[in-house]
Amino acid sequence: MTHYQSDLLRVLNDRGYIHQLTDADGLDALACKVIVPGYIGFDATAPSLHVGSLVQIMMLRRMQQTGHKPIVVMGGGTTKVGDPSGKDESRKMLSAADIDANIDSIKRIFEQFLTFGDGPTDAIMVNNADWLDALNYVDMLRNIGPHFTINRMLTFESVKIRLDREQPLTFLEFNYMILQAYDFLELSRRNDCRLQLGGSDQWGNIINGIELTRRIDSQQLFGLTTPLIATADGSKMGKTANGAVWLNADQLSPYDYWQFWRNTQDADVGRFLRLFTDIDLDEIQRLEALEGSEINLAKKTLADAATTMAHGEKAAQHAAQTAENLFEQGQAGGDLPVFEVSYDQISILDALVGIGFCASKGEAKRLVSGGGARLDGEVVSDMGTMISATDADVKISAGKKKHGLIRKVG
């Protein structure tokens, strides 16, 4: 077992964040002596990040907790290009206005997890558009281009996957790895940044930045990646039947966020408590050792802690209370998703699709025929059932875990 001297690497190692390190001894020694500024980049392809980005956000939090300086790099420039890593096809091109709006929305997430300010270990947020947008293309090619060979670029996983599947990889996207390497060089110069963190799919991009900075500035930089976070059944973390688990409350309610964590598989509870909460490791060891129905206590602890971190204590308590009312007392709670209708009646099929429990009427029909749809706790067996939308909310359920309200408006 690896024994690190620095709090930074010890915490990251003990909590399960480390997959690869470029120079473990060098970074460990540096982190013992000085405050290490480290960064992770986030492209702004949507108004919110989802739970798949949470490991990266938590690593920045761990940096700050161990006395180092997190740098959040928003990809105002790189989002215009698109990262081909892990993608089968090109990303939709976003306008500059859309990218700026997404960055403004995403900023709110980081304020929940990090302390921003002017202090030595306070987090800062920068936008790589500040330097990428100002680049003169020919100068960029002359200064940076000679340090990259096409031969080596073709060996990168993100490129090979696309070519092997005969999916088009545009010249625009092919430039992404150069721009990300250039980010590291710029951050080293502007912010004395010495460390880049990222998911395992970013290893090649991180190495590019380290090598580019060594060649041009003779500066030593470090890279660290996390393992791919998959659930115990092998599925990708954060992908559910209902789509992405968003971190912004206006895209996913705190109640649904709480439920996502509450529904964690038994085998994942301990690992997720280490990665996604600040709970003491000894307490996590106690919680993950619980057996039978008692493991539900660990799941609720995980849900409470993760939701408090993302949405605040009040929202977490409200979500937990709603769940308790609904499942343990049979009452409808105030944090359930609501489908508002402006007419007196709606069919059960339209209601299931409208509230987002089913993707289509065909799926809704299968749910009803299988006995999985309920209104106010009563199973609905007739596909032609009409719901009377009156002044009182009607509770609609799909299976055991999805519950919402039909509400008359106007």
Automatic annotation (TrEMBL):
Its EC number is 6.1.1.1. A motif ('HIGH' region) lies at residues 44-53. ATP binds at residue 239. It comes from the Bacteria. GO terms for biological process: tyrosyl-tRNA aminoacylation. InterPro entries: aa-tRNA-synth_Ic, Rossmann-like_a/b/a_fold, S4_RNA-bd_sf, Tyr-tRNA-ligase, Tyr-tRNA-ligase_bac-type, Tyr-tRNA-ligase_bac_1. The keyword ATP-binding applies. A motif ('KMSKS' region) lies at residues 236-240. It holds the Pfam family tRNA-synt_1b. It catalyses: tRNA(Tyr) + L-tyrosine + ATP = L-tyrosyl-tRNA(Tyr) + AMP + diphosphate + H(+). L-tyrosine binds at residues 39, 176, 180. It is found in: Cytoplasm. Keywords: Aminoacyl-tRNA synthetase, ATP-binding, Cytoplasm, Ligase, Nucleotide-binding, Protein biosynthesis, RNA-binding. Its main location: cytoplasm. The keyword Protein biosynthesis applies. Catalyzes the attachment of tyrosine to tRNA(Tyr) in a two-step reaction: tyrosine is first activated by ATP to form Tyr-AMP and then transferred to the acceptor end of tRNA(Tyr). NCBIfam families: tyrS. Belongs to the class-I aminoacyl-tRNA synthetase family. TyrS type 1 subfamily. Homodimer. This is Tyrosine--tRNA ligase. It comes from Parasphingorhabdus halotolerans. The gene is tyrS.
